[in-house]
Amino acid sequence: MKIVRDRDGDAVRVALTGELDLASSDDVRSCLEEALAETRPARLLVDMDGVAFCDSTGIEALILARQAAVAQGTRLELVNVHGIARTTLEITGVLRLFS
């Protein structure tokens, strides 16, 4: 998993490339939590354009990051979600949490 973080005004964008699964979910979760703690953005955008697959551990990482964001008043949004990752998030009902 490749993770790139950048700031754009009041938002922080975290772009993910690869598979969001058991091997990468801890790294993704840590990056999202660090972005929240260090920058306290109004919005945290998780760009999933490069995510080819997302399993239950990836879903858990996203949900835990969302909970941390809500607790500090940050809106966490998933953007550019498509393919099998989108299907998985829709079927599980998770995608609507980020809408």
UniProtKB/TrEMBL annotation:
Family the entry assigns: Belongs to the anti-sigma-factor antagonist family.
UniProt organism field: Paractinoplanes deccanensis
Gene behind the chain: spoI
NCBIfam families: ant_ant_sig
Protein name per Swiss-Prot or TrEMBL: Anti-sigma factor antagonist
Domain annotation STAS: ranges: 1-99
Any Pfam family the entry gives: STAS
